[in-house]
Design goal:
The protein is built from 24 helices and 18 strands. It is an alpha/beta fold and 662 residues long. The radius of gyration is 30 Å and the shape is elongated. Bound molecules: nicotinamide-adenine-dinucleotide (NAD).
Length: 662
């Protein structure tokens, strides 16, 4: 009977029956591995299959289809596998020396398709394993055992000659070469896998199912082994509802982290029963600072987390770590930014940082799995990570450095957070989309519940009536927990009531318009002031007023007065907040018809009242152009960009030119 509720085979005969080829079966079980975060996470792990296929001339060629870089096992497709000539890879494994850059080049040259992705750096290792299917994961349970002072002894005791155990060497050619030399001499008929200390586990087999289920079996054995030594069950804190720290504290920490990184970072907060239990340990700081679960994680999490909030000391330590280790590389190295990516703080919980919301979420997942592995290893024996030099080698690996050098400029608003009110429709929606496309994380507030349907990693949609001060306050807490702060605020939500002349206009109707178009915006400015003041590149506010401010319309008293009042509020905000570097600018759109404010009938009746056709009415401005939501969004983004870094209190019309205003 199983001791743990852990690993289960996800194999399904029905699904497997849909795989017409070896490669299709390879895709299928790769995805099964990818579906299990206890095996692989976020691009980790790799798989392969060896096939014989005809080349252009009809000659048979042995090909290793190995996962290409850039694919994730959970979602990999056939195109995510690189077809490399097996013979070429096996010849490489015979070389005594090869730099990793040379190897990467050879792997590309070995491919039978010019548009193939770059083969995994572990391709040579896959090639030398004598089986059709090879699966490789970084299973938590196995690493919880290898990452202990007696790890090798435990692994040998657990698996016997089912696996060949390889001591840690840096991934890349050195590892492939070591395995090529050691594996054939140490394998027996019982061998179904290979454990790489502090790195991960391989299994292989003649069918996709055999290789996959051997992985599940070996990892299950590791889980059961931990359970039998009372090292599987994790402690959970009784409750996680310790009072949330004020959001300004998180925003301030984000400001410090961004400053250390030299660019704005997204900072996600996570407080679970597990993080609370880990942080309650007296030894949490020392335990968490021993090093990562596998060296690969260093790219996402840095070698150690920041414990507490002293960013300056962390940075100084990182600089010393770089200086101590840089001579390990033959080539001159450029220091990466010294900002931590994982923060453990007793009051704030786990915070993870990244240049994008996705990066912060990846760091979170790795950190959560690492905390579990640490506690299990500690319960078994003691948590032991690799020496810092080994971690440094991966962090500053020539292939990683080359990857960084190839990276283009980051997206314009990468690492920044924009909050847009009224983001479910029209101009607000277009603005949210434009910010997302420009790399920002976006918080969208709207009274329309559908705003939450679009929720994903970079967009947080919160249903919220902006006239409800407490609801806005609460939404800001949620936003700061998810992204860490606020850089740009777009006050866009507004209502345009049916036309009413003053003698017909009730005070109630007037107040309803004022509540949304003016009062709610005071609430938002009031509640966001502190966050905007802590924005790494200075806060920016854009207020969506209207052409009606300067050219009011008959029948639109409440609307025109509300937008004039809003404009005046924004001008005062510009005056008051300039000393904090916060810029406040105003847009005055007119006649933006692809919005919820306008419907076909209103458009037709308005056109008729001016004696124009609908098409003439659409373009009824000096330039004779139609203004769209996307046009307004583009101006809002530009006002938030460095182009307008020295402009505040500007009022920009987006109306095609209006003769009543020029
Ligand atoms: P829209 O109706 O498509 O969008 C307005 C959004 O605000 C809607 O999603 C709505 O649900 C939301 N909203 C309304 N009341 C809310 C509340 N209390 N709390 C939260 N969300 C609320 O219309 P739009 O044209 O995109 O309007 C956006 C802004 O642009 C408004 O302030 C409007 O006055 C202004 N504007 C529009 C035009 C135009 O011609 N469309 C012209 C000038 C100014």
């Amino acid at each position: 009977m199983r001791n743990t509720a852990g690993m289960q085979s996800r194999w399904s005969d029905t699904e497997a029956a849909n795989c017409p080829s070896l490669l299709a079966a390879r895709v299928y079980t790769s995805r099964l591995l990818g579906a299990d975060a206890d095996l692989v996470m976020h691009g980790g792990g790799n798989t392969s299959v060896k096939v014989t296929e005809a080349d252009l001339f009809g000659d048979p060629v042995d090909v290793l289809y190995v996962k290409g870089s850039g694919s994730d096992l959970a979602t990999v497709t056939e195109h995510g596998f690189a077809p490399a000539r097996l013979h070429h890879l096996l010849r490489l494994a015979e070389l005594d020396e090869l730099t990793d850059a040379q190897m990467a080049e050879q792997l590309r040259l070995a491919c039978t398709r010019a548009d193939a992705p770059a083969p995994s750096v572990e391709a040579v290792l896959h090639a030398i394993l004598p089986a059709t299917f090879v699966d490789h994961t970084h299973a938590d349970a196995v690493l919880s055992i290898t990452n202990t002072p007696n790890g090798r002894k435990w692994i040998e005791e657990l698996y016997g000659d089912q696996v060949v155990v390889i001591d840690y060497v840096m991934p890349g050619f050195a590892l492939a070469r070591k395995c090529a030399l050691e594996f054939p001499t140490r394998r027996t008929d019982a061998t179904v896998g290979m454990v790489l200390m502090h790195h991960g586990i391989f299994t292989f087999g003649e069918s996709a199912r055999e290789s996959y289920e051997r992985m599940i079996d070996l990892v299950t054995m590791a889980e059961d082994f931990l359970a039998s030594r009372r090292a599987w069950e994790l402690s959970n804190a009784a409750s996680t509802d310790a009072a949330l720290a004020p959001r300004g504290v998180v925003a301030q920490l984000r400001a410090l982290l961004s400053d250390a990184a030299g660019a704005p970072l997204i900072v996600e907060s996570t407080r679970t029963a597990r993080t609370a239990a880990f942080l309650a340990r007296d030894d949490h700081a020392e335990l968490a600072s021993r090093g990562p679960m596998t060296p690969d994680h260093v790219i996402r999490t840095k070698r150690v987390p920041l414990i507490g909030r002293d960013v300056a000391t962390y940075v100084a330590d990182y600089v010393r770590y770089f200086e101590r280790n840089q001579s390990r590389s033959h080539a001159p190295l450029t220091m990466l930014d010294p900002a931590p990516r994982v923060v453990l703080d007793r009051e704030l919980g786990l915070l993870t940082a990244g240049r994008t919301a996705r990066d912060a979420a990846v760091a979170r997942d790795i950190a959560l799995h690492t905390l579990d592995a640490i506690e299990r290893a500690d319960a078994l024996d003691a948590w032991a990570a690799l020496p810092e030099g080994d971690i440094f080698d991966v962090e500053y690996w020539e292939l990683e450095q080359a990857k960084l050098a190839r990276q283009g400029a980051p997206a314009q608003f990468a690492g920044e957070i924009a909050l847009v009110t009224g983001a479910a429709s029209g101009i607000g929606r277009a603005t949210a989309v434009a910010f997302l496309e420009a790399g920002a994380a976006v918080v969208g507030l709207d009274i329309d519940d559908r705003i939450s349907e679009r929720d994903d990693q970079t967009f947080l949609g919160i249903p919220c009536d902006v006239t409800d001060h407490a609801a806005v306050d609460n939404a800001l807490d949620v936003a700061v927990r998810r992204f860490g702060g606020l850089d740009m605020l777009v006050l866009n939500a507004g209502v345009f009531p049916p036309s009413a002349r003053i003698e017909e206009l009730s005070v109630d109707a007037w107040r309803q318009v004022m509540a949304v178009n003016v009062d709610a915006n005071l609430s938002l400015l009031h509640l966001c002031a502190d966050l905007l003041a802590r924005a790494p590149r200075h806060g920016r506010v854009v207020v969506n007023a209207s052409k009606n401010v300067h050219a009011p319309g008959p029948g639109a008293a409440a609307y025109s007065a509300s937008k004039a009042s809003l404009t005046q509020l924004a001008r005062v905000a510009a005056l008051e907040w300039a000393p904090k570097g916060i810029r406040v600018n105003i847009v005055h759109p007119n006649a933006v018809f692809d919005t919820g404010i306008w419907d076909v009938q209103t458009l037709a009746s308005r056109a008729e009242s001016y004696g124009l056709t609908v098409d003439e009415y659409r373009k009824n401005n000096l330039l004779g152009v139609e203004v769209t939501s996307a046009d307004v969004a583009a101006v809002i983004l530009t006002l938030c960009s460095p182009t307008f870094a020295k402009t505040t209190a500007a009022q920009v019309p987006i109306d095609g030119g209006n003769e009543r205003i020029v």
